[in-house]
Amino acid sequence: MTDTASRAIAILGGTGPAGIGLALRWARAGESILLGSRDAKRAEESAAKIKEKAGRGANVSGKENSEACAAADLLVLTVPFEGQAALLKQLKPAIRSGSVLIDATVALAAAVGGRASRTLGVWQGSAAQQAAELVPKGVSVAAAFHNLSAELLNGDEALDCDVIVCSDDANASQLTRALAAKIPGVRAIDGGKLENARTLEQITALLIGLNIRHKGHAGIRITGLPAKAYE
């Protein structure tokens, strides 16, 4: 599987719980992290906290979103659905051709005052497909990391969860699965084309409903696949 160690990872909108959790896990795995935010100072403060938690030698810095975006070609978007389109339009001039954008957005009904355990209808089919329409030509989009608990990511224990990756680009899928596999306890699975992201996003809403009902941190595990499916 493709190695990511030589590439910085820019986590855009990365100062929320999901972005910080992913940054922490990848920093512990030796990745170079650029934590992006609308507010550079907030990004720097969050990066300092992650470095302190990740341990000596962690390579994490904070930047304004566009600066983080311009400094890397491996991008991870961790923003609420209501901010996704506006941020991508703002960042479009800074996104390098040939970049990979990993989108973890879920179109939750909570974005318009509805229930977090339901998804909104997105004209393109899913939030990830909307992202693919908004990025510059030559940028590959993968959908992933929707179903990892942000609270557990910010902890120290291994996660009991699989990450399903959907993309129309084989290289983007490989890169994303390589990153997922760096999180202890996580297995990464090729979920097929980007259009399958609509199902991933609906699963996220289901998991939120389960967590509300049972007061837990539900994830998903896929059973019955051969070992090579997780390679």
Could you characterize the architecture of this molecule?
There is one protein chain. The chain is α/β, with parallel strands linked by helices and 231 residues long. The chain has one domain (9-230): NAD(P)-binding Rossmann-like Domain (Rossmann fold), CATH 3.40.50.720. 37% of the residues lie in helices and 17% in strands. The protein has helices at residues 17-28, 40-54, 65-70, 81-91, 127-134, 150-153, 170-180, 197-214, and strands at 9-12, 32-37, 59-64, 74-77, 100-103, 140-143, 161-167, 186-190. An eight-stranded mixed beta sheet has the order 3-2-1-4-5-6-7-8, sandwiched between helices. Strand 1, helix 1 (17-28) and strand 2 form a beta-alpha-beta unit. It starts with 8 loop residues before the first strand and ends in a 17-residue tail after the last helix. The mean pLDDT is 91.
